[in-house]
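Onboarding guide, step 5: your first structure request.
Type a short instruction followed by the sequence, for example:

Predict the 3D structure of this protein.
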Amino acid sequence: MKLSDLKPVEGSTKKKKRVGRGTGSGHGTTATYGHKGQRARSGGTKGKSFEGGQMPLTRRIPKRGFKNPFRKEYSIIKINDLERFKEKGEVSIEDFINSGLVKKIKSGIKLLSSGEIDFPIKVKVHKASKAAINKIKNCGGDVEVIG
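The system replies with structure tokens like these:
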């Protein structure tokens, strides 16, 4: 048996209905769209959310809360993550990107105090928590916040 020998089972397939091919075909003139009405017009379909003139669901449901369009979202680095830069001594934004810790900078990079540190290191970030700055300074390191 070859692929060219395969055929569908008898009666399982039908010919496609060809509409708008003259009155003799039985599906001419209106091409199965009927007379007048919204669906018979060109461009007469409405969007998926159209509810027949009823107030749409998205407008019926009460709105809550507030989304600040000017919100700043930071990529986060934890003190635990600085372990891989132990020998380097100084870490900048490029190092975070090259190491794969940060994939997208967004509004900047923020250093958080999650974890412990036991070696001095100089870190350059856009923002840092007070606890993170204190932990690094206690080990003899420094945090430079880029404006």
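Each response can be followed by summary notes, for example: The first helix runs from residue 57 to 60.
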